[in-house]
Design a protein that fits this description.
By secondary structure, the chain is an alpha+beta fold. It has helices at about 25-35, 45-50, 60-75, and strands spanning about 15-25, 80-90, 100-110, 115-125, 130-140. A hairpin with a 2-residue loop joins strand 4 (about 115-125) and strand 5 (about 130-140). The chain has a five-stranded antiparallel beta sheet with strand order 1-3-4-5-2. The chain has three helices and five strands. Helix content is about 25%, strand content about 35%.
């Protein structure tokens, strides 16, 4: 698979389509099973509160993975992502209700680099708070 976006067709400031991702307690249980991360802060409300959290929180790596989907969907090839990094700034709190939480992700081209690569800067928020900082991906385009 190759990137579907052409380097020549993007400029600094090009916005990628924004996405919103839903997260429920069931989502967290499925992610725990897939990742092997069964830390009780991700499923046990009593434990999460006892250790000082407001409630159960989403796995940081889950949040990171959902955010980069904006980039992989845009470029059309997950293998085109050469680098990706974030700082975790706030947890995604997932209440025990039918709605859960949402993660809103936006992104734009922050820089055009060499060799048909671009740096994509992402923003990720939940409940009005920034949950990822310094979220950046380097992507090779067609």
């Amino acid at each position: 698979m190759a990137a579907k976006v052409s380097y020549a067709d993007v400029e600094v400031g090009t916005e990628l389509p924004a996405r919103t991702f839903s997260v429920t307690r069931a989502t967290l249980v499925r992610y725990a099973g897939a990742s092997g991360d069964f830390n009780p802060i991700h499923w046990n409300e009593k434990f999460a509160v006892e250790v000082g959290l407001p409630d159960v929180i989403a796995h940081g790596m889950f949040t990171m993975a959902e955010a980069v989907r904006v980039v992989t969907d845009w470029v059309g090839d997950p293998g085109a992502v050469l680098e990706y990094g974030v700082r975790f700034t706030k947890p995604v709190v997932v209440p025990n209700d039918d709605k859960g939480a949402t993660i809103e992700v936006g992104a734009k081209v922050g820089a055009k680099l060499d060799d048909n690569t671009v740096r994509v800067d992402l923003t990720a928020t939940s409940a009005g708070q920034k949950v990822l900082g310094m979220s950046r991906a380097v992507v090779r385009l067609a």
